[in-house]
Amino acid sequence: MEESQAQTPIVVKEETTAQTWMQWFGTDEAINWVYLIFGFFVIVLLMTILQFSTQAICCGDWDGYYHIKWSSLLWENLKQGKWLPEFVWLPLTVLNAQDYADHHFLFHLLQIPFLWFFEPVMAAKIAAVFYGSVAIFSVYWLMFRYQVDYLLLWLAALLTCASSFLFRINMAKAPPLTIIYTIIGIYLLFERRYVWLLPLMFAFVWTYSLFPLLLFAAFFWTLIIAWNERRFEWRPLAYTVGGMLLGNTINPYFPQNLYLFWEHFITKVKVGSDFAVSVGGEWYPYSGQELLMNFPIALGAMLIGYILFAPKNGKLPEKSTFFLMFVTVLLVAQFRSKRFAEYFPPFAILFAAFSWKEFFAPVFSPLREDFRGDAEPFYDAGKINAKWDVYDLSKQISLWFLGLVLVLWLVYNLRGIEFAGFKETGLIATLQGNETNDKYKRATDWAKEHIPEGERIFNCNWDDF
Question: Does a structural domain hold residue 420?
């Protein structure tokens, strides 16, 4: 008898647990988790396909070779207990050995683990897939975290936001980490965990010189809190500025890193004027036609965000207001320079998604189940159900149609099109046409044979260094 009584609670508990799990798998939360995992694999697959469409380091840009080479030199020195390697290759430039500062220092360290398992070119390619995938997934995760509806639709929008975005995010460079840091910073602002902005900004400064993005984010958030709560919230700005100061002063390249940042700033940040000397092509703007052809989804997302943005009862919707300010700055920067193609498009999708969510948020809480049951006899149930059936059907058809359009647009971006005299080369074909790894082999072989060691070589195109 005692044995039977002792076993009874265990059986009941097991049945209850099993029933709870079964119930959870039918909830919206479980479905969104499935969407999140599905999105992760789709993102990784897409990044892998694009990166390995060429044997070279993607994507027609030679910076990736510099970055992985410098990572390998760092690793060689570190494992031998030596300090930072000397940069001796550009002695007559601002990057001479005395003034050189590695403003990608942490990025170069983060590439080193891939060199433990692969030769340099493959290490750079796999690192690019890894960090690029994490960057895109972090944007998708933010929508999941704040329960934006229609996750798969927003995933499709994210993957089609701009062909230039997919192109540039695949380069073996630091911008994917910029997106990751920015998304983490936005999450910390939304959750009001401001103290963590300090170490995040410190890491950002060590990784890439676009760290002021996080300072802009903190400034915009401070303005929103000031409007809604009628108080000055000093902590976001204090912690980001603190992290920025510490990251720049507690730095292996201090004070040269400050000189290099200033040199970049006065050379590259131009409003309404051209550069004094030629710079990389990515610093020049797109033409109007190129913007419309490359960014239709991102520009459409901005339009949706602006239309749906609506303050309520004198209060600003915090998240959509933040993205309105933040992404508008990125849009203006995109008009000025091609290199913002990896930043503006994904954040434009976030602006549209959060504006959509906050615009359609219910004004009143739904009735409790027990009260709804008591009130049901007073409803004209037949008419209401018929209207909602038509509405739901129309909504589902619209969502499926929009999803189909986005999927077809992704295929168009990847494969291109040639029809009735119209030809647009797809991303995959473009990447397949990248120049091979041995582009400079003949020149360097000749140089080794005919030029004495230590001689200075002048080339006529700085982009070929």
Answer: yes
Provide the β-strand partners of residue 424.
417
Rounded Cα distance, 13 and 17, in Å: 6
What's residue 412's pLDDT? 86
Measure the CA–CA gap between 64 and 114, rounded to whole angstroms.
Answer: 14
Assigned token pair, 199: 């170490």
DSSP, collapsed to helix, strand or coil, labels residue 425 as: strand
316 within a domain of the structure (yes/no): yes
More confident residue, 365 or 248: 248
Q: Which two tokens stand for residue 75?
A: 């690793």
Distance of alpha carbon 292 from alpha carbon 72, whole angstroms: 40
d(CA 179, CA 251): 22
442: number of Cβ within 10 Å: 9
Nearest to 143 by CA among 161, 169, 127: 161
Cα Rg of the chain (Å, integer): 27
For 419, list phi and psi in degrees, rounded to 5: -155, 130
Residue 372 inside a domain? The answer is: no
- How far apart CA 101 and CA 91 sit, in angstroms, is 13
Identify each DSSP E strand in 170-299 by its residue range: none
Total count of domains within the chain: 1
- Domain around 175: 26-271+289-361+393-450
Report yes or no on 14 lying in a domain. no
Give the pLDDT confidence of 116-165 residue by residue, as tens digits: 999 999 999 999 999 999 999 999 999 999 999 999 999 999 999 988 89
- 232 DSSP 8-state letter: -
Neighbours of 154 (CB within 10 A): 24
Residue with tokens 């291109």: 416
With 0-12 / 13-18 / 19 or more C-beta atoms within 10 angstroms meaning exposed / middle / buried, residue 273 is exposed
User: Which amino acid, 355?
Assistant: S
The most confident of the ranges 182-191, 270-279, 337-346 is: 182-191
At 347, list the tokens: 């954040």
Q: By CB neighbour count within 10 A (0-12 exposed, 13-18 middle, 19+ buried), where does 420 fall? A: exposed
